[in-house]
Hints:
By secondary structure, this protein is of the alpha/beta class. The chain has one domain (4-426). Helices cover 53% and strands 10% of the residues. The strands form two sheets. It has a four-stranded parallel β-sheet with strand order 2-1-3-4, with helices on both faces. Helix 10 crosses helix 16 and helix 11 runs parallel beside helix 13 (249-268). It is globular. The N and C termini lie far apart (47 Å). It binds Double cubane cluster. Double cubane cluster binds next to helix 7, helix 9 and helix 18.
Amino acid sequence: MGKKADYCPMWERLGMDIEAHQQLMNALPSMFQEAILDQPNRPRGMDYFDLAMMEIHGARIQEIVNHKEAGGKVIGAFCLYVPEEVVLAAGAIMVGLCGGAEVGIAEAEALLPRNLCPLIKSSLGFKLSRMCPYFQSADLVVGETTCDGKKKMYEILRDFAPVYVMELPQTKSPAAKKLWFEEVKRFKVEVERLTGNQIDKKSLGEAIKFTNRRRKTLQRLNETRRANPAPISGRDALLVSMIAFFDDYNRFSEKASVLCEELETRVAQREGVADPSTPRLMISGTPMAAPNWKLPHLIETSGGVVVCEEACTGQRLFRELVDESNSSVEAQLRAISKRALKYDCACFTPNDDRIENVVKLAKEYHVNGVIYGVLQNCQTYSVESYRVEQALKRINIPMYKVEYDYGMGDVGQLKTRIEAFIEMLAR
Ligand code: BJ8
């Protein structure tokens, strides 16, 4: 390996708090080593994703800065509903801004109630503490009217960054679908204004193909996880999903395809990361934004293996494709809006789609149990756990609900409870 690049001048130009950021960078490698790199029998194809995570504030940011210096724009978002195809079609780079670490939470709690979901506090905290180069690079931050905490946080965020909010309906009625289609069109106009680039059917068609290609690769990867033994750990599969939110689309699809080939060979040879008798678990619930691999880490060091994530950092990220057959911008935007409204975030009501989908995934991935993970104070996912549990009971799959935050204080207690659940599954 060559000499490590010095990114400090770049971070300084982005207005980051270099000292505080350095402390974060010093802490991450040992966490990453313990949770990810120390796992036995990892696929070789993970090397790229390890490097991408280690360089997440380095090499990828350098590419983004180069893009900005060449006149390109960067758009950050916190939710899968924000149509990435529109951003790509205008030649901009899209990045995920959801915070998955305790970083900046103290700063955020000076402005937000303490009893708020850690993802919201961490997202604002990353901006306030000037420790996230993605936030610092963003020319526009796109919010959405999903949960109440996020909606109100965006009002505060406006004091610190340019914010644009999309109005997401919370039902799937014909009127709601119409509203969302109008919102997608309004977003296109905003992105064109920001970038100075017109979106036409060619650029939008290509963007749809790029994003679909990434989704299809992730679908292929996840297909392999139906096999027993599981060819890849839940932590590694989550790491791949996390990188998808930051990486260049083409490069990501290429590297993930290489990994898929290796996993398919493993499946054919019945080679896996855990003994075939290991209890197979699905994680269902709130997103696990980088570097929050707390739940899969706990599960996989407690005798289980994670084979599926029913979450935005899992199945929801790649499950639906956009129809590629449309030949006008209007029809393409309609297809983009239709795809998004097939998602089943817990902010929707009623949300039968999600309940049905959890059951379907539990069967398809042959899971023995479900860990329902909710970030503390997330009301929508917490309340919806009741219906999910009832549906799983009907197919005799036990579910265990855990609420957690980004700190380490609850790790011991969570581990004891998760171990007991997995032991019960193994009997
Ligand atoms: S589509 S899951 S990315 S909104 S965990 S901040 S819901 S209080 S993140 Fe999400 Fe879009 Fe839905 Fe997905 Fe609020 Fe709950 Fe916190 Fe959450």
